[in-house]
């Protein structure tokens, strides 16, 4: 189709897939989200005139695909609980592997809260950029960030620091 | 590590290899284009058909939506509790063919994908489908489920190398576990016994996230029941190699065993252990009747009950003659009473409709645990279910209906 698209796919597939995993918590679903994202990018490729905006376009595609899918599959794949699922405590989950903790804790968040935290603290986006990706106001981003962090702090049982965005972007 | 970015990076650091290739993307793009053309063509045809039919609605559902699954379908065939709020059920949606009455009769295919797992994280108020499965999972924690995925009808190596999948999100997603590796000398902290087809004692090791086989197994032909108390006590009941009922107890995590054939043996029965909370007193109940003493319409069989008060070293019958009614399942209530659930043959299998209670394992009296319906299909002291309802108990005696289909 296009050598440039193939190079971009090769360079960005894994980071898109990892971001998708943080959003959905399931590698198989992450693969699906990644494929859908790149399919949309492929269809729009000829209309992308600004190569420097590719990452932003792809990121926006991914987050919106995830939010759309999570609404459609809401009841089938997971349920955002009023009372967060138990993480740690008497369950073995926390001991199986520590890295599952944060993924499991993320499940307690509503999809838009997850997307907000991933944009801000994994992708290193500012409030304005996150609002653009999510298609919401900056006030909403701030609120979602604060609420999401509060839940993670409670579930992970530790002080979760907000990272320095300049450090994240490096 | 408390920096959220570092936590996110760590969480994605063990990504399994992706099979997604750019060719897949191209292929999906082409398929989407074709589907788009097909939708357009179908929509046009549907519109023409509606016009031609004078307004008859023609529904074309190209975007099939998944089942929303507000309620598990019935009948319920299995239920388990992860904790007070996390419940799991399995519904069986298939009609199974009867036994052919002659060789000329065509053999109907056995249905597949019949059993569906459902999960509730709010005590049964709402449920979500977790897809199909072959066998009920083992519930290891509120959100931690283990399922056997090896095919027992497949390779003979399956028994030597059973394969497992673990879910740490209540059955929403599963991941394969690494192979068992070398057997372990003693169970690790927090281990949970896991049943397997070969009668070997295996445990789920939460530290390593894998199922492990115990290196020193009790000498039994079949293990029927196993219980872990505290961090090092393992109690096992089953049959020895001459089909006599026996129990084995380890107080060092499975490194060494005290094995005892129950006195006056020869029971081809069904052994079940009841273990007191202190780890020294236990009851073993063994049927004396047919190879499968349950369920009989008149409940003819009796169970011999043996008791140990020294942690499994000596077992003595609680009575010279068997006094324990034939039962389907048994448990100990929070206040120490032994409860037996008695069954009879119903139209479509055994149903439990009577309960007898004892404080000493010798004399039993009929009783009715409050909150249970007239009949249930299965009960274990914590959760019970009928075809279309689920009940839970926190003390083993008082029950509450938490879902009704």
The arrangement of helices and strands of chain A along the chain is HHHHHHHHHH
Which range does the strand content of chain A fall in?
under 5%
Please report the two chains with the greatest interface, counting residues with C-beta closer than 8 angstroms to the partner's C-beta.
Answer: A-B, 67 and 57 residues
How many helical elements of chain A?
10
Tally the beta strands of chain B.
28
- Mean pLDDT level of chain A: 74
Q: Gyration radius of chain A, to the nearest Å? A: 16 Å
How much strand of chain B? 25-35%
Characterization of this structure:
The complex is a heterodimer of chains A (170) and B (405). With 170 residues, chain A is mainly α. The radius of gyration of chain A is 16 Å and the shape is globular. In chain A, helix 7 crosses helix 8. Chain A starts with a helix and ends with a helix. About 15% of the residues of chain A have low confidence. With 405 residues, chain B is mainly beta. In chain B, strands 16, 17, 18, 19 and 20 form a five-stranded antiparallel beta sheet that branches. In chain B, strands 1-2-3-4 form a four-stranded antiparallel beta sheet, with no helix packed on it. In chain B, strand 22 and strand 23 form a beta hairpin. Chains A and B meet through helix 1, helix 2, helix 4, helix 5 and helix 6 of A and helix 1 and helix 2 of B.
Tag the structure with descriptive keywords:
heterodimer; A: 170 residues; globular; B: 405 residues; mainly beta; 5-stranded antiparallel beta sheet; 11% helix
